[in-house]
Write a structure and sequence with these properties.
The complex is a heterodimer of chains A (about 950) and B (about 450).
Chain A (H helix, E strand, L loop, with lengths): L12 E6 L6 H8 L7 E5 L14 E3 L2 H8 L5 E6 L3 E2 L3 H12 L3 E8 L6 E3 L3 E2 L5 E2 L16 E2 L7 E5 H7 L8 H14 L4 E11 L10 H14 L2 H24 L5 H14 L1 H10 L5 H8 L7 H15 L21 H16 L1 H6 L14 H8 L16 H12 L4 H26 L4 H13 L1 H8 L3 H6 L3 H9 L6 H21 L6 H13 L4 H12 L12 H6 L13 H14 L2 H21 L8 H24 L9 H20 L21 H5 L7 E6 L9 E2 L5 E5 L15 H14 L6 H6 L3 E7 L4 H5 L5 E3 L9 E6 L6 E3 L6 E3 L2 E3 L5 E5 L7 E2 L3 E4 L2 E6 L3 E4 L3 H33 L1
Parallel strand pairs in A: 1-2, 1-4, 2-3, 6-12, 13-16
Antiparallel strand pairs in A: 4-11, 5-12, 6-7, 6-11, 8-9, 10-12, 13-15, 14-15, 16-18, 17-18, 19-22, 20-21, 21-26, 22-25, 23-26, 24-25
Helix pairs in contact in A: 5-6, 6-8, 6-9, 7-8, 11-12, 12-16, 12-17, 14-15, 15-21, 16-17, 16-20, 17-18, 17-27, 17-28, 18-27, 20-21, 20-22, 20-23, 21-23, 21-33, 22-23, 22-26, 25-26, 25-27, 25-28, 26-27, 27-28
Chain B lengths: L1 H18 L26 E9 L3 E9 L3 E9 L2 E13 L2 E7 L5 E10 L3 E9 L2 E6 L7 E7 L6 E8 L5 E9 L2 E3 L7 E3 L3 E6 H4 L6 E9 L3 E7 L4 E5 L4 E6 L8 E8 L5 E8 L9 E5 L3 E6 L9 E17 L4 E5 L5 E7 L7 E8 L5 E8 L9 E5 L3 E6 L7 E18 L2 E5 L2 E2 L2
Antiparallel strand pairs in B: 1-6, 2-5, 2-7, 3-4, 3-6, 4-5, 7-8, 9-15, 10-14, 10-16, 11-12, 11-13, 11-15, 16-17, 18-23, 19-22, 19-23, 20-21, 20-23, 23-24, 25-30, 25-32, 26-29, 26-30, 27-28, 27-30, 30-31
The chains are: A alpha+beta (about 950), B mainly beta (about 450).
C-alpha cells in the first residue's frame, strides 16, 4: 500500500472520540487546544447515552461506518482518541508528521500516566503469538526520552492513534465488541495483514489513566485477544495456536488462582464462552478482512516475541520468589522485562533448582510413591479420613477414640483440594515439600544477606543432605513433608518488620501457616522458630526475631488440635520408636571444617549464619540421638529436620564466607577458602542421591498387600496381621514380650492407619494370643486370630512367627507372596469378620463406618469396645462392641470435645490462609495505588 | 564473643550427642539354622504319628495319655487334608487319663495327628499282628534336624523312611545318610518336597542297598516334617521316630535277654565328638566305661552284647551334640529305640497295650542319691492296675514286670530325677518303648 501525499500541505484530519463513559469534556478540550487544525470532531458512542461535553457537543455517531460517511472524501486521516485521554497541544501534529515521514498507516502516541506524567505507560510494543502485549517497560519507568525514536511496533494503545481513513474503510472500521487494549491490537494486526506500517511517534505525548497491570488479564481482554487471533491468523497457524492458548490460559488461570485471584479460572472460561457465542460475527469479520495467509502470519510474527509472555511473567514471579527478595524488596515491575532475564542469578538459580528437584524426584514423579515405612498411600476417601480425624474413630490397630496424628488431617485436606486424587496428592505433597524447602532455604538465606549461589547450594543440602536422606531412608514421610514449611517460617523470623497493620497481619498469617505446616507433620517443630529467633537475636543482635519466633511458634499450636490436648507433653515426647541418627563418620569432617572455618575466619552475615547453624545443628543432633534419654520419635524427627536446616545454613555461610574478606590477612583468607571448599564438598555429596531419583526413599515394600483386596470375600478385606523386623513394618508397630514387632492393617493399607493409638483391651488380648502362638502352644492360629477379624498373617522378614507358621494346621500359605525363608503370607479359610450380624452376615468396613444390609439387626463390631458406637443400643461384647441398627450402617458417634477442637483447628488454618492471601493482595493494591 | 560462645555451646552439645549410645535393637535375633539341643520328647497339645498299620492281619493302636482328663481328636492326614474321624474323651484313670484308639481303616500304613483339647499329653503307636510287634512314641515337637540311627539295608531288609507334613505349607527337606561307607548322598534324597498335609515315602533300601549300619538325618530347608523309620526283616518290624541332638542320652532299657544289641551314635556336625558310655545295673556297681570318637560328620556303632546284661541301662555323654539309639535284634526279633536326652521326676509311659506280651518297665538312676519311684498302671477301661513303688539306689537300674491285663499306660513319679523305659516280648518278637516327661 502506498500513501501519496504533499508535504507542503497539511492533510485533513478528523478527530474521532471513542466514548468510554459519559464524560468527554476533557478530551474535547484537549482536542480544541491542538495546534494542528482539524477538519471536524466526531464522537462515537456505541449505545445511546447522555454525554457530558461541558459546552458545545460535536456530532455523535454510533459506529465507524457513520464516521466514515461523515468524514467525506477530503479527510485523509482519522485521529482516534479515547475519551479518557488528554494530549499535549502538539500531539496530533507530531502524529501527522510521523505518518508522513515514515509512510505509516497507523501511528500511535507515547502514552504517559495521567496521575504522574513522568511515568511511561506505553510506547507501543510487541506481542507474543497469542496476542499478549509486551511493553518492554519496567513498571513505573520514568520517561527520560529513552524511547524517543520512531519505531515499528506490533501494536499501539488506542489512547491516541492516527490512522489513514481509506485503511479504516478497507478494514471495516473498528471492532466495537473489543475492549480497550484489544481494540488497538485488532486495528494494528489487521492493518499489518493489509500491508500497512505501524509505528509509534514518541514526540506525540498523550496522557491516560493507569488502569493497573491486571487490565490485560480481564476476561474481556482475554476474549478480545482470542477474537483477534481468529480474525488475523491463517488456518494453519490457528490449528496450533488455539489449543496452545487454551492450555496456556488454563495454566495461567490456575497459577493466578493459587496466588489468590479466585476469578482467574472463571474468567478464562468466560473468555472462551464469549468467543463461542460471537463466533459467527468473528467469522463474518474475518471474511470481510483482507486475505490472511501464512505469508501474512509471517509478517505478524516479525513483530512478535518468541514463546509466551504470560508464562515468562509467571516464571519471573517464581524466580523472584526463589531469589529471596523480601516483601519490601520485591519489585513486581521487573517481571519479565529485563533483556538479560535468563542471565539473572535468581533465574539461573530457579532453573538449576528445578532441574535438581526434577532429577532428585524423577522416579517418584513417573511411578508414584512407594509403600514403605510411613510412606503409605492416602486413603481412598479424604472426606471420610477427615471425619475420622475430627473426633471420630482412630483407624489404627483395633481402633480407639484417641485423636489421630495431625499429619493425617493435613494430608487429607490437601487430598481434598486436589480432587480426592490420593496418588496425585501424595506426589504433590512430597515433591512440593522438597521444592518449597529448597525455595524457602534460598529465601531464608537471602534474608540473612547471603548471595544467590550459596542459597541455591544450601537449598540442595537441605533437601538432599544426610539428615533428610536419613529420614527418607527410614521412610519417615512426615519428616520429609515438614521440611516444606520450616525455612519459610525461619525466613519470616529474620525479616525486617513490615510496615502497616495489613502487612503485619499478612506476615503473621504467613509465618503461622509455614510453622503450622511443619508442625502438623512433626509437631515438635512448632518450637523451632522461637529457638531460632533467640539464637539469631543473640548472634545478629536482632530485637524482633525472638518476638517473631515466639509468635510463629504460638500461632502453630492451635493447628495441632485435638491431638495436642489429648496427650500430656511427656507422652508426646516419649512415644514412638525413636529415630536414632547415626551417620557415617565421613559425613562429619566437611561439615565441622566448614562450620569452624567460617565462624573463625568469616565476618558479617556469613559468619553469623554459620554460627547460628552450628548452634541449631548441635541442638538438633542432640535431639536426634536422644533416645537414650527416654525421648521417642517426635523429638528425634524434629531434631533431624532442624539439623537439616542447620547444615544448610552452615554450608551457605561457609561458601559465602570469602565474599566478605576483601582486606584481611592471607591466613584468614586461606581459612575462609578451606571452609568454602568444605561447604562445597558437603554440597557435592547431595549429588549422591540423584542417580536413584527417589529422594532417598527405599523401594516399595508393601504393594504386595494388595493381594488382600483380590482375595477378599464380597464384604471386603478383613484384617492383616503383620510381623517382621521393626524396619520392615508399615508405620508404627507394637512389640510382644520377646521383642517381636507386629501390627494390624485393615485390609487396605493407607496412611491414616500408619499411626497406632494407645493399646486398649482388644489390643492387649491380641498381644496375649500372639504370645501363646509364638510359644508353640497354639497349633490353630487362624481360629485364634479370627476373633480379631484377622484373615491373613504376613511376615515381612525374619521373625519368630515364620517358623511357627510353618508348623500350624489351619492357615494356608499363599505362595509367591513375600517368598523366602523368612517371609510369607498365610490365609485362614474360616470366617474372620471385622463385623458380623447375629445371624452370621458379614458387614463391610467403610472406614470409619461399617455398612451392611438395611434391616434391623444386631451387629458385632470387632473394634475396641466404646459406648460411642451406634446408632442403636450398644453393649460390650468382650473386648468388642455389639450394636443394634436398622439403617444398614454402624458408626462411631465421635468425641464431642475432640470434634470441637478439630473444627477450631480447621477454622484457624482457614483464617490464616485467608489473611495470608488477602493481606498480600491488599498490600499490592496499595502499592499500585 | 557471641560467636565464640556459640561455638563452645555447639561443641558441648555435639559432644553430648556423640556420647549418647544407639538404642539396642529390640527385634529378636534371627533364628539360627544349625543343630540345636533336643529338649526330648515332651507332652504337648499335639502328637504327630507318621506311621500306623491296619491291614486285617496287623493292627495299630494309638494310645494317648494325659495327666488330667481331656478331649482327644484323631485326624488322619491324607491327600492334602485332615480327616477328623474320631473324637475321644480321655477318662480319668487313677491319677491320669488314657485312651486307646485302634486304627480300623484297613488301608495299610497311615499318618495321623492327635490333638489334646484342654490338656497336654503323649501318644504312642503300638502295632501287633503277623510278624510285627512294634511301638514308638509320637513326637510332640518339631526339630529342624531329625536323627534316625539304627537302620540297615542288608539283603532281605526293607528300610522305609516316612516323612509326614501335616501342616498347611509345603515342606522341602534334604535326607542325609551316614553308613559304614561314610557320608552318602543321592539325588533321590536331596530337595525332597513334601506337599502340605501329605506323607512322602522314601524307600532307603532301593537307594542305598546293602548297608550294614545306616543312619538317616533329615533336615528341613522349608517348612517342617516329622520322620519315622520302619525296618522290616520279615520276621519282625521295628518302627521308631526321629530324635534331635544332645550332649547326653540315657537308656533305661539297653539290653534284653536273647537279643544282640548295639548303640548307634550320629554326629551331623563337622567336628568330631568324643563320647563316653557308662553302664549301670541293678547292683549299682558300674562297669568300666567305654570311650570313643564319632567322626564329624559320621556315625559310631558300639556293640553292647559283651557289656550289657538283661538289667543293664546306660548313659552316653559327649563333648558335642550327637544323637543315639539302641538297636536290638535276634533271629526273630527286631527293636530300635532312641534315647532319652533328659531325666525327670514324672513320666508318662504310653503304649503298653501289648496283649499277651511280656511287658517290663526299666528304671535308671544315674544320680548320686537314691530315688523312690511310684508307678500307676492305667487302662482306658477306667480300671487302674495295681500301683507299685520301688527304690532306686544311686547309679543303678531296676525292672518291674507289669502283670495287670489292660494296662495301656503308666504314670511314674519319683522324688528325684530318673529315666524310665519299657520293653515287651511276644512270640519271639520284641518291642522297645519310650516315655515322656510328665510336665
Amino acid at each position: 500500500m502506498t500513501n501519496p501525499h504533499d508535504p507542503s500541505s497539511d492533510p485533513p484530519v478528523l478527530a474521532v472520540v471513542i466514548a468510554e463513559g459519559n464524560e468527554i469534556s476533557a478530551v474535547l478540550k484537549t482536542i480544541s487546544t491542538q495546534v494542528y487544525e482539524l477538519e471536524d470532531v466526531v464522537v462515537v458512542a456505541g449505545a445511546a447515552r447522555k454525554l457530558d461535553a461541558d459546552g458545545l457537543l460535536p456530532k455523535v455517531v454510533r459506529s465507524m461506518s457513520e464516521v466514515l460517511a461523515h468524514a467525506g472524501d477530503r479527510v485523509e486521516y482519522l485521529w482516534l482518541v479515547d475519551s479518557r485521554t488528554t494530549a499535549r497541544p502538539d500531539a496530533l501534529e507530531a502524529l501527522v508528521t510521523t505518518a508522513i515521514q515514515a509512510d505509516a498507516s497507523v501511528v500511535g502516541s507515547k502514552v504517559l500516566d495521567l496521575a504522574d506524567p513522568r511515568r511511561l505507560l506505553s510506547v507501543g510494543g510487541t506481542t507474543d503469538v497469542f496476542g499478549f502485549p509486551y511493553t518492554g517497560l519496567d513498571r513505573g519507568e520514568i520517561d527520560q526520552e529513552q524511547f524517543d525514536v520512531i519505531r515499528d511496533v506490533a501494536y499501539v494503545e488506542p489512547a491516541s492513534i492516527l490512522v489513514r481513513r481509506d485503511l479504516v474503510g478497507g478494514l471495516g472500521g473498528l471492532d466495537t465488541k473489543l475492549p480497550y487494549v484489544a481494540t488497538g491490537l485488532d486495528l494494528c494486526q489487521r492493518a499489518r495483514v493489509a500491508g500497512g506500517r505501524i509505528v509509534v511517534a514518541p514526540t506525540s505525548e498523550v496522557f491516560a489513566p493507569y488502569l493497573g497491570s491486571g487490565r490485560i488479564n480481564t476476561w474481556r481482554e482475554q476474549a478480545g485477544r482470542i477474537r483477534v487471533m481468529l480474525k488475523t491468523y491463517s488456518l494453519v497457524t490457528l490449528q496450533w495456536a488455539i489449543p496452545g492458548l487454551l492450555m496456556l490460559g488454563l495454566l495461567a488461570g490456575l497459577y493466578r488462582t493459587a496466588r489468590g485471584s479466585l476469578r482467574a479460572v472463571p474468567d478464562w472460561m468466560r473468555a472462551w464462552s464469549w468467543n463461542a457465542r460471537y463466533l459467527p460475527s468473528t467469522i463474518e469479520m474475518r471474511r470481510k478482512a483482507p486475505t490472511v495467509s501464512t505469508v501474512s502470519d509471517a509478517e505478524l510474527f516479525r513483530f512478535q516475541v518468541r514463546g509466551s509472555v504470560e508464562l515468562r511473567g509467571i516464571a519471573s514471579e517464581l524466580t523472584t520468589l526463589l531469589g529471596g527478595a523480601s516483601d519490601e524488596e520485591r519489585n513486581e515491575y521487573e517481571m519479565g522485562d529485563s533483556p538479560a532475564f535468563w542471565q539473572r542469578p535468581a533465574v539461573l538459580g530457579a532453573v538449576l533448582g528445578t532441574i535438581f528437584i526434577l532429577i532428585f524426584s524423577r522416579s517418584l514423579l513417573l511411578e508414584g510413591l512407594p509403600a514403605v515405612g510411613f510412606v503409605l498411600p492416602l486413603a481412598d476417601s479424604a472426606w471420610d479420613t477427615l471425619r475420622a480425624y475430627a473426633g471420630g474413630w482412630h483407624l489404627g490397630g483395633l481402633g480407639s477414640p484417641e485423636p489421630m496424628h495431625p499429619s493425617v488431617g493435613i494430608t487429607a485436606a490437601v487430598q481434598i483440594l486436589l480432587g480426592n486424587r490420593s496418588g496425585l496428592a501424595a506426589v504433590v505433597l512430597t515433591v512440593g515439600s522438597a521444592v518449597s524447602g529448597l525455595a524457602g532455604t534460598a529465601v531464608l538465606l537471602g534474608r540473612c544477606g547471603l548471595r544467590p549461589g550459596a542459597r541455591l547450594l544450601s537449598g540442595a543440602v537441605l533437601v538432599a543432605g544426610f539428615p533428610m536422606l536419613f529420614l527418607a531412608s527410614n521412610a519417615y514421610w512426615p519428616g520429609m513433608l515438614a521440611i516444606g514449611g520450616l525455612p519459610w517460617a525461619l525466613a519470616a523470623v529474620v525479616s525486617p518488620a513490615p510496615k502497616g497493620s495489613i502487612a503485619w497481619l499478612g506476615r503473621l498469617a504467613r509465618i503461622g501457616l509455614a510453622t503450622s505446616w511443619s508442625a502438623m507433620f512433626v509437631p515438635f517443630l512448632a518450637a523451632v522458630p522461637l529457638v531460632f529467633g533467640l539464637v539469631w537475636a543473640a548472634l545478629a543482635r536482632s530485637r524482633t526475631s525472638p518476638v517473631m519466633g515466639l509468635v510463629a511458634s504460638s500461632i502453630a499450636l492451635p493447628s495441632l488440635l485435638p491431638w495436642l490436648l489429648a496427650h500430656d507433653l511427656w507422652e508426646l515426647a516419649a512415644d514412638g520408636a525413636p529415630l536414632h541418627l547415626d551417620p557415617s563418620w565421613w559425613v562429619w569432617p566437611p561439615v565441622v571444617v566448614a562450620a569452624l572455618s567460617a565462624v573463625s575466619s568469616g565476618r558479617g552475615r556469613p559468619a553469623i549464619v554459620t554460627a547460628t547453624g552450628m548452634a541449631l545443628g548441635a541442638a538438633g543432633f542432640l535431639l536426634a540421638r536422644s533416645s537414650d534419654l527416654g525421648y521417642g520419635r517426635e523429638p528425634a524427627a524434629a531434631g533431624i529436620v532442624l539439623l537439616a536446616v542447620a547444615v544448610a545454613m552452615i554450608v551457605a555461610g561457609a561458601v559465602d564466607g570469602p565474599s566478605t574478606l576483601d582486606e584481611v590477612r592471607a591466613i584468614r583468607r586461606l581459612l575462609s577458602y578451606v571452609g568454602m571448599v568444605a561447604g562445597l564438598l558437603v554440597g557435592i555429596t547431595t549429588l549422591l542421591a540423584l542417580p536413584a531419583g527417589r529422594m532417598g526413599l527405599p523401594g516399595d515394600r508393601f504393594a504386595v498387600l494388595e493381594f488382600a483386596e483380590s482375595r477378599a470375600d464380597p464384604h471386603g478385606p478383613d484384617r492383616i496381621l503383620m510381623v517382621g523386623p521393626s524396619d520392615a513394618l508399615p508405620g508404627e508397630y507394637r512389640r510382644l514380650a520377646d521383642g517381636t514387632a507386629y501390627r494390624l492393617v485393615g485390609g487396605v493399607l493407607d496412611y491414616p492407619q500408619s499411626w497406632l493409638p494407645a493399646p486398649l483391651e482388644g489390643d492387649l488380648l491380641l498381644e496375649r494370643d500372639l504370645g501363646s502362638l509364638l510359644s508353640d502352644s497354639e497349633m490353630r492360629p487362624g481360629g485364634a486370630l479370627a476373633g480379631f477379624g484377622i484373615k491373613w498373617v504376613v511376615a515381612t522378614g525374619p521373625n519368630p512367627l515364620t517358623p511357627v507358621m510353618s508348623t500350624q494346621l489351619d492357615m494356608k500359605a499363599l505362595t509367591g507372596l513375600l517368598p523366602g525363608e523368612s517371609g510369607g503370607v498365610w490365609e485362614y479359610d474360616g470366617e474372620s469378620y471385622r463385623a458380623v450380624t447375629n445371624s452370621g452376615v458379614p458387614w463391610s468396613w467403610s472406614p470409619p463406618d461399617y455398612t451392611g444390609p438395611r434391616s434391623g439387626t444386631t451387629v458385632q463390631i470387632n473394634e475396641n469396645a466404646d459406648p460411642g458406637w451406634g446408632p442403636g443400643t450398644w453393649e460390650m461384647a468382650g473386648w468388642a462392641n455389639r450394636v443394634t441398627t436398622d439403617s444398614g450402617i454402624a458408626t462411631f458417634g465421635g468425641v464431642p470435645s475432640y470434634r470441637i477442637q478439630a473444627r477450631v483447628a480447621a477454622v484457624w488454618i482457614i483464617v490464616l490462609t485467608t489473611l495470608a492471601l488477602a493481606c498480600r493482595t491488599g498490600r499490592r493494591s496499595a502499592e499500585l495505588a | 564473643m557471641s560467636r565464640l560462645l556459640a561455638t563452645i555451646l555447639s561443641g558441648a552439645l555435639l559432644g553430648a550427642a556423640i556420647l549418647l549410645p544407639s538404642p539396642p535393637s529390640l527385634d529378636p535375633p534371627d533364628s539360627h539354622t544349625g543343630p540345636v539341643e533336643d529338649e526330648g520328647y515332651r507332652i504337648g497339645a499335639l502328637s504327630y504319628c507318621p506311621w500306623s498299620l491296619s491291614d486285617g492281619a496287623r493292627l495299630s493302636s494309638y494310645i494317648a495319655v494325659a495327666n488330667v482328663p481331656a478331649d482327644l481328636r484323631l485326624s488322619f492326614v491324607e491327600g492334602g487334608r485332615l480327616e477328623v474321624p474320631l473324637s475321644v474323651r480321655l477318662d480319668p484313670g487313677g491319677s491320669g487319663a488314657v485312651a486307646s484308639v485302634e486304627n480300623q481303616r484297613l488301608l495299610g500304613v497311615s499318618s495321623a495327628l492327635i490333638e489334646f483339647d484342654g490338656s497336654e499329653g503323649a501318644t504312642a503307636v503300638v502295632t501287633t499282628g503277623d510278624n510285627i510287634l512294634s511301638g514308638y512314641l509320637c513326637p510332640a515337637r518339631i526339630q529342624s534336624s531329625w536323627h534316625l540311627p539304627g537302620g540297615s539295608t542288608l539283603d532281605g531288609e526293607e528300610l522305609v523312611l516316612r516323612l509326614l507334613n501335616p501342616f498347611t505349607a509345603d515342606a522341602r527337606v534334604d535326607v542325609w545318610v551316614l553308613s559304614e561307607l561314610g557320608s552318602e548322598t543321592d539325588d533321590r534324597l536331596e530337595g525332597l518336597t513334601i506337599p502340605a498335609r501329605n506323607t512322602r515315602i522314601v524307600v532307603i533300601d532301593e537307594v542305598l542297598p546293602r548297608r550294614e549300619s545306616l543312619a538317616v538325618i533329615v533336615r528341613s530347608s522349608t517348612g517342617a516334617v516329622i520322620p519315622v523309620m520302619a525296618l522290616d526283616r520279615g520276621t519282625d518290624r521295628a518302627v521308631w521316630a526321629g530324635a534331635g541332638s544332645s550332649q547326653g542320652w540315657e537308656f533305661p532299657v539297653a539290653s534284653v535277654d536273647g537279643l544282640e544289641t548295639a548303640l548307634v551314635l550320629t554326629n551331623e556336625g563337622s567336628l568330631e565328638v568324643n563320647y563316653l558310655v557308662e553302664f549301670f545295673n541293678e547292683e549299682g556297681i558300674p562297669s568300666a566305661p567305654l570311650a570313643g570318637v564319632i567322626e564329624g560328620p559320621g556315625q559310631a556303632r558300639v556293640p553292647l552284647t559283651d557289656w550289657a546284661g538283661a538289667d543293664t541301662g546306660l548313659r552316653v555323654t559327649g563333648d558335642g551334640l550327637f544323637s543315639a539309639a539302641v538297636v536290638g535284634w535276634s533271629a526273630t526279633a527286631l527293636a530300635v529305640t532312641p534315647g532319652l536326652p533328659t531325666n525327670a521326676t514324672t513320666w508318662l509311659v504310653p503304649g503298653l497295650d501289648t496283649i499277651g506280651a511280656n511287658t517290663r518297665l526299666g528304671f535308671l538312676n544315674t544320680g548320686v542319691g537314691e530315688v523312690r519311684v511310684d508307678y500307676m498302671p492305667l487302662g482306658s477301661s477306667g480300671e487302674g492296675g495295681t500301683p507299685g513303688s520301688l527304690t532306686l539306689p544311686a547309679a543303678s537300674t531296676a525292672t518291674v514286670t507289669l502283670s495287670d491285663p489292660g494296662t495301656e499306660a503308666v504314670i511314674v513319679s519319683g522324688d528325684g530325677p530318673f529315666t524310665v523305659g519299657w520293653w515287651a516280648e511276644s512270640a519271639g518278637k520284641v518291642v522297645f518303648g519310650g516315655a515322656v516327661p510328665g510336665g
